[in-house]
Amino acid sequence: MVAALLAAVFFALSSVTQHRAASTSDPSTGLGFGLVRRLATRPLWLVGVASDVAGLAMQALALATGALVVVQPLLLSGLLFALPASMLLERRAPRRGEWGWAVLVVAGLSVFLVAARPAAGSALADSGAFAGGITGVVAAAGVVVLVASTRMRHRAALLGVAAGLSHGVVAPLIKQIVGQSTGGVLVPLQNWELYAVMGVGVAAFVLIQTMYQSGRLAASLPPMTIVDPVVAVALGAVFFGEQVSRSPLALTVQALGFMMMTLGVVRLSALNSGALQGRPAPCGTLPSSEVRTQVRRWVPAPGVNTRAVLILSASVGAGHDGAADELAERLRRSGVDVDVRDYMNALPRWGRFLLRDCYSPSVRHTPLLFEWLFTTIENSRVVRAVVLTFCRLGNRTVRMWISAGTYSTVVSTYPLASQTLGELRASGRVGCPVVTYLTDPAAHRTWVHPNVDVHLTVTAATAAIGEHRYSVPLRVGGPLVPARFANAPSPDRLAQLRRDLMLPADKPVALFATGSLGLGDAAASARDAAGAGLTPLVLCGRNEVLRQRLSAVAGVIALGWRTDVHELMHLADVLVQNAGGLSFTEAMVAGLPVVSYRCIPGHGQANAAILQQAGLAPWALDATQFAALLRQQAARSRTPSSYDDPAQHILRLIEPAHSPEHRPRVLVQHTSA
User: Which of 374, 376, 455, 655 is the most buried (most CB within 10 A)?
Assistant: First the structure.
């Protein structure tokens, strides 16, 4: 009992000091682990961390001899210590009724404990069933976090609920670990609970810091304080067999005590909900004033056509940006005003981290997981619903971008941006036509949306297969790559380039495309090409580590980021691709034969399958087949072709035709930090 009360005091001190430090941090610089790194330089926050550690120690001591159903509710008494400390640090008087509602919470706790007459259960829970319960609670916390990202008015309270859910599993995990340690101090090292408490504890800790930054302590602390013990008590009753009195009178009084606690929490949150108004916009959103300052707009003279196009791209690799930039250039040459936005900036920082920063490591190190996720999004309605919920996080900012301009059409070159636009179009919050330009040969479910007005594809095969698969009209738009890819350099220039790269004159050249991130097993592919009698010329993008590693392989020529890829494609005899995006489109325009090999999981393999099915590029499944296909494709003659221009499809949507004298405004590109 004493240890539990001491834990309540330490946790209260930790809550107040960490909240004080976090709430004064600039939210525009980001949340999550970046916030924690900044706070670690503040002495007041470090005092809070030390108090947190002391509280966890007292909590573990209390759980060693007491039941969850007793220890965790007692932590609610910390509210009486936290509120006065908060008022002292904020230098404010208590609001009317604030103390009364706080006392009501603690009184409700007392009524609940007296009526419950809790009894201890077993020291250990069944590990398998316990894992399922922990997973369910953590998943629920994740859903609440997603909701909090779109609900500014109650954001602090919702984050408090999520923090309570995640923190509520820590105590049962600690109790399980304490029970396991009775068999020896090394026993917990052999079980999953110790590692789970580390992971969940860190996630809960980061979430709590984010919660502290989102509003006043009295708005966020009570929900966390009440949800935490409720979760812990429920897990204790289900998995540890802890008991409470179940007589009709006792259950009635327990319900009364719980209602008193709930009412106190709700009223405390309501008293402070006004503090949330006027706070900075959630991370990843842009107030309208900020939107206006980031795009330098050309002010037209009276009578000049002011129609414009907004293009949403994404800084994930280079393919989406490449298509967006080329479309923007073509439209500007036709007298259209074009703004290009990075969809990543419409998402919270943690969302950008998942999509952009985790993309390359997941493809490299967890390919099976990446492939499973890609396939599951395609086939599972539940997972697609989660993805759509994630995309809604960008709705507010994208709508602001559209409202800030006089756009007659919005175009997306990134699948999740297309989902956001489709949702906004369906709800009537975007009135102008929206267009999706599919940069991948394979039409995935995230690329298509029934409320997007026009879906444009690079090839007829993508349009036909996608329309058959998803029952959404797709039309061929044509490639979006610069015209220089179609124009062969002079023989003298190609000869000079061959000398500069020290390419053997007696061997055909296999150009390897690994994207801007240098993905895939390029080393093995290059060795297989060399074994087939070709000279491997590998484009490593911005992956300097890959370039240095391949440079040490005999017979392989490794290049970093190049601006003369159009010339290299006319120098090479065959392109080897593993993703099927922009590099394939460039090769198609250049007339360069293509072979797919060692494709990256997910979209890479899906694209290879479509290209092979359409007869556009064979897919080699082993080294022997690869060698044969390389020699076969390298021996083919180039066949220049003409293609549709996607820009013409956009221009037809923004009738009347633009005046040729209309000079496009200058765009200051907005990229993420």
Answer: 455
